[in-house]
Design goal:
Layout lengths: L5 H15 L2 H10 L2 E6 L3 E3 L4 E7 L8 E12 L10 E14 L18 E4 L14 E3 L14 E5 L9 E13 L6 H5 L3 H4 L38 E13 L5 E2 L1 E6 L3 E7 L2 E7 L4 E3 L4 H5 L4 E9 L4 E10 L3 E7 L5 E5 L1 E3 L12 E4 L1 E2 L7 E2 L4 E9 L4 E4 L1 E8 L3 H7 L1 H15 L1
Parallel strand pairs: 8-11
Antiparallel strand pairs: 1-10, 2-10, 3-9, 4-8, 4-10, 5-6, 5-7, 5-9, 12-26, 13-14, 15-25, 16-24, 17-22, 17-23, 17-26, 18-19, 18-24, 20-21
Helix pairs in contact: 1-7, 6-7
Length: 435
Amino acid sequence: MWYVPRDLVFSLAILLLLLVTPCSSSFLKTKNNIKSTAYLSPKFELEPGLVIDKYYYDIDFPKGHIAIKSFSVDIVDEADNPVPLHETYLHHWDVNRYYQSKHATQTRHDGQMMPENSDNIMVRNSGTCQGNKNGQYFGLGTETRGTIMDIPNPFGIEIGNPEEVPEGFEEIWMVNIRAIDMRGVEDKLGCTECRCDLYNVTVNEDRSAIRPNYKGGLLCCFEGTHCKLKEGFEGPKRSLYLKYTVNWVDWDDFIVPVKIYLIDVTDTLQLFDDSKGLDLDHDCRVEYQVESCSTDQKEGNSCVHVKRTSLPMQNGGYVIYGVAHQHSGGIGSTLYGHDGRVICSSIPIYGNGNEAGNEAGYVVGMSTCYPQPGSVKINDGETLTLESNYNNTKEHTGVMGHFYILVAEQLPYQHFRHSTRSSFFMDVTNLLVDN
């Protein structure tokens, strides 16, 4: 065995790394190896005024250790034609990640929610909400067709890592679809806002009484309910699908992982003591009500309802992408840092036509943020403020104020230095020293 000085080993490693693994070529490889597949959910049936709220488990999804690069959704009929919102209102869709026991005794393919005591373990996003609220990896509403979600290179959402899946389990995906058939309804806006009087309900899906001051929202437009139709209107049943397209690449050391954070403006934070000391309890209500403004405000053209919440981010990083989710009446949402700097501002896009993707009066898209990587950083423990604004010339029920951000804990040069390069140096060192 002969001795090689460490300085020489390090210099040779640097030289070889520069010669054989230039970053630009790895980015090009990722771009050229993107795979894309469009999938269809199970078929669901609608009739005029009907609400469906379906949960489909173990849906078709890319397999293996991969990085998601984009995710898009549409509602289509049996001929694969997009269905406009004034015919079928896509209240929301969300796609959730689970670990399911390979010996699961309970599986569901009938559109009903899995019981809480099932063999499934939900893998939540990294956001602040807890329990079964806002844990989805992907999800939007009417703005789906007009909202871009393409993750720039070299970043990606890592899934399918076998080292993260518990022994005896496998990774599966579930989609929840809530849609309302708008054909022939008496009050289109009222139906989309799930006003309780239009659905003629006084109890929720669990048969519990709805509180008197609750005028509309998710509790009033659940599976099987009907929104009020114009007198004498009749229409045929129709079969529809959620069409979801996934773009991805096989995972490699040059991909920088991003985490998904969903922040809810209804989230209220409480501190409590447990056996391990102080802990945080997040109460996300998912939706809220916007009261109409006063007559004086209407005359002064100042009818803007502002809702805010401030929450600490336990782990920070660099913002790669951001977008808000709002309903009709929304006029924009902004996420601020603790010093008041704007992290991302997202504005609704309203349609002005009849065709799918441009329906007049509906939110058909949301503007997005793609900051230059490294230019927008959230510090560990930093308190962020989310502000959601709605025009409140008229009352709105069941509105939402969510914000999605993708955050990379490291920039590409940091990630490569700490992962690929360190392993590369070790391999070169072992090779030279062994000789």
